[in-house]
What does this fold into?
Amino acid sequence: MSPRLSLKYRIALVIFVLEVVMMAAVLWRTLSVSLESTITQEAATQEMLLELVSDLGSTALLTGEYADIQIYLEQVESKPTVERVHLVDVNNAVVASTQVTAVGRPLPAIEDTGERYWRTREIGTAAGTLGLLAIEFSNASLMQAYERARNLGIVIAAIGMLVIGIVGVLTGFALTRRLDRIAQAARRFAAGELTVNSGVHGGDELGALGQTIDDMVQQVAHSQEHLHEQSEQIRLLMDSTAEAIYGVDLEGNCIFANPACLRMLGHERDTDLIGRNMHELIHHTRPDGMPCPLDSCQMMLAAQRGESARSDQEIHWRADGTSFPVECWSHPMRRDGELIGAVVTFIDITERRQAEAALEESEIKHYSLFENANDAIYLIDPVTAGILDCNKKAAELDGYSIDELKQMTVMELHPEGERDALPENFRDVLERGSASGISGMHHRRKDGAQVPIEVNATIIEVGGKKINLSIVRDITERRRAEAELERHREHLEELVEERTNELTAVNRELETFAYSVSHDLRAPLRSINGFSQALTEDYAQGLDAQGRDYLARVIEASRRMGELIDDLLTLSRITRSEMHQEAVDLSTLAGEVMAQLREHQPGRRVEAVITPGMAVRADRRLLRVVLENLLGNAWKFTGNCAEARIECGCESIDGEPVYFVRDNGAGFDMAYVDKLFGAFQRLHSVDEFEGTGIGLATVQRVIHRHGGRVWAEGAVNQGATIYFSLP
Amino acid sequence: MEQRTILLVEDNPDDEALTRRALQQNKIHNTLFVVHDGAEALDYLFASGAYSARDADSMPEVVLLDLKLPKIDGLEVLRRMRADERTRLLPVVVLTSSNEEQDIVSSYRLGANSYIRKPVDFSQFIDTVRQLGLYWLVLNVPLPRQRGG
It folds into this structure.
């Protein structure tokens, strides 16, 4: 609304116009009344003057003395309204006049001009006319006075109007200021502002209006909030539901669609659907590939009739041209009782269809399993033991046809001696739901032969009815196999005994062998060594340097062979000896072994670090052999080290304590690590470090006998670490 | 100093020669009497059989006994010696190739005074014999003769 047309200006304008009209009317009326009265008064004055001058004139005319009258006329002329005065005798000659030049002349033409007009009066007596008096009056001064009065009135009126106009505008402002606030509040409210407060209060009508508007705003805000909440709930519902929902008008054009609908149909925005004919878009072709015209769509027809419909035989088409089976529901949509369209919901039932197909397939499979099972299967009434159905294998087993069997009870299939126990068996299965591996029973075939069987029975529910499903296996073959197996088992025991005896003999032989190695192999070595030494000592002078060198080699070779034999014997003894597991302080044991080594070679400076308190469970003697070998190796291979260091400790690897012996000696190449634990495997030449190559093999055997693991890490010239675990 | 006899029970002539040499090298000049099997050893000790003419009262100072012997083995010899009053306290050093635990244990259980394993290395053997001689022939105070002087 433009300010020009605002209420306050209109009020001011109306007041102003009314004022102008009223003023003009009053002024006009006042002036005209005044003018009329002035004119009337003037006319009376003129009449009076005419009368007076006529009287004087008649005298003059009678006497013929015109001097006095001439003076009198001049006096008359001095009156503002009198212009000219002529006194004419009966001969029409001017006898006295205010116009000196006219005296003695005939009366000039007397004509009214504008404001001037002539008034004449015949002067006479009863005897007759004496002459004529003509006075020219002028309204000029009168009109001037009138105009002055009029102008003054207009000025006063203008001032008055100005004042009234200002007062009107101010009044308008005063009146509309609160209205304005109400109007502004209303405008802001209309613009969507819901926290508007006009602030206009009071006991008058405007106050009531302001209060009403404020109340209305509050109510609208409240209901708008409520509406917003509701629409938010609806939006959430629409957005979150897994079902696709869309709405169509009566023509079937989409008016809304929820995100699930867009997703299922492969559209990105609801604008892809809104306005489109949904049937033509997603329901145009039937599952069999035939077109599905709109006028045959039961869903749409029902919707148009205002009815609900449901179908799970439909497919919907996606944006990319693929289709999927749906179950859909259509509900009419009404506004104020009038049908305006339909809401359609649908769900993708691909998985359901697949499950149904799978179920169908599984039913076929089950049926086929039942039909072609390798076991006889009977469906039995759990109460009467009547055979309801059975498979081909059952017919084969019993020698009856399936039809014959279906006329029989299970009782008839068992030999008489077993029949008494059957009802109890049936009750038991029915109560427990299943029974497996029931054996010791027989079926009597149609030909009279008895077949040993094993029964697995389960209670299944078919259409709410409990049925005993019994799987019966002919165990004739199994019985035969079991008998066979039994015979083999007996034989096996003999075999095991035989083998044990053989093994015992071999073991004994081995011990004898070890014993004789210990004795008999060493004896000739002693001779070789001893006599060679005797030769060097007693016959050194008979030998040249080469001869003495040869003899030295013989002595050395025999000594090494002695060591080899000893180590081999140790290895063999470790394998054979019995184990006595006990709590062993590994730290103390390691300390003892180190002390032995130091005693043996007191000249060597070796720093030994042994973690205290390592408690293990092992065979003390064998563990000592392990430590002797490991620490002995460490001692040996640090022989060339300036600052030899040997460490024996424990660390936790994957929660398991792992013990280790570490040295900073010659080490080894990890490429040969798998050779390390083989008997007679050496990674150093005898010249470098002496040894037989059996030590670590022995260690490994001992650790393995304890159920532990042993492994090594090292690098050439950077020492070696041998780890072992003792579970 | 009275020459005390050392009885060596050894069937292997090489070992016999080497033992003799080891004793010599250690300046042990006691009479070394050698028998070659267990039966002969018992005959010698109890002055029976071929040795019935021997003075049964004259016992060797120490018996060096091999375990693996023809006819009667060393352990049996030891058992019989310890069973007989005359030889019950006679010092017996088992001198053998065997390092089998069972032999060591049996030897001590049957009353061997010492158990020495003959090493292959002769120089070690010499050392061992030296210690043996030092102990049994020099430091050990022999039992008083049961009869006579």
Q: What stands out?
A: The longest strand of chain A covers residues 323-335. The longest helix of chain A spans residues 476-538.
